[in-house]
């Protein structure tokens, strides 16, 4: 039986990293793990391969002399109490890597076919008025006043906004797991979304594990990152209703707020929703339904515009977020193929499918880029062509 003389330090690093990021029962799955880590016995090739899969560590890493340094591959705007968050999870890293691969392929493809760069990418600076940038974003997407009020549900509103962003030739991906692996759930506490800027193939990723109403804000927030261009591209967290992360996050926060809940519209509606004795919770919920944003975002906007007292807002904020976490824990996934429209993105998937059918890339590469294999890829391609 062939055994692999792997460094105990690497095994401990893989186990601790995996357990830190929510992987459980490794000692049960690998009963000899303690002996491996003390070098009493080495794992077989197959055991080490299984251990690599279970800890989401590339197999080749176990042949290094010491644990690798795996820095965040994009700028990290997340902070908690003004401290940078360290140790990205395997789920987050693998998601970023996959999106970078998609972006790199699409960029090369678009340049090859002679596509023009997108003028709005990097069109804003931190010295600009974020409110004006919010208005410009709405204008580019063709969103009229009151558009969200005409959409029935938050879910439909997220889909409509995501489609508008894709129509602008920005890849907009919403996913709550790594690829299609439902056992690798993305953690909202770790990140809400990220933006990868590029003149030809900008990409927005939204953590689909978040509440639908909150996803609306993340879509708008990450779109503002694209407007700032390379200097504004990176990972966002929003650990609270007041995002930290410096000037870039504050700018994108303000632009997104105006984009989703324009001041003029809110002030016009205020007298119809605010009446003496009406609980602020009811006011916030009413506004949330009108604008298809989280009640927290609606309430925060009213606070920013000094339409509500801080104490009243924060009483509502604490009660609502506690209840929302309970409700979100019970949310189930939808139809697999419908989910691919958000997980892969129709624009990107269409380009890859066309390239594969025309023989410009192999189907194996197409499977890798989309995260769909064999018959699943073919069935999704047929549904897209049929307009489903």
Architecture overview:
By secondary structure, the protein is α+β, with helices and mostly antiparallel strands. The chain folds into 3 domains: 8-63; 79-260, no CATH class; 336-385. It is built from 16 helices and 8 strands. A 4-stranded mixed sheet has the order 3-7-6-8, with helices on both faces. Strands 1-2 form a two-stranded antiparallel ribbon. A hairpin with a 2-residue loop joins strand 4 and strand 5.
Summarize this, please?
The chain has 388 residues and is an alpha+beta fold.
Question: SSE layout and pairings?
Answer:
Blueprint: H1 8-20, H2 26-29, H3 33-37, H4 45-55, E1 79-80, E2 83-84, H5 90-112, H6 130-141, H7 154-167, E3 171-175, E4 177-178, E5 181-185, E6 193-196, E7 203-207, H8 212-228, E8 234-236, H9 247-260, H10 263-273, H11 280-291, H12 295-304, H13 310-328, H14 336-357, H15 363-370, H16 374-385
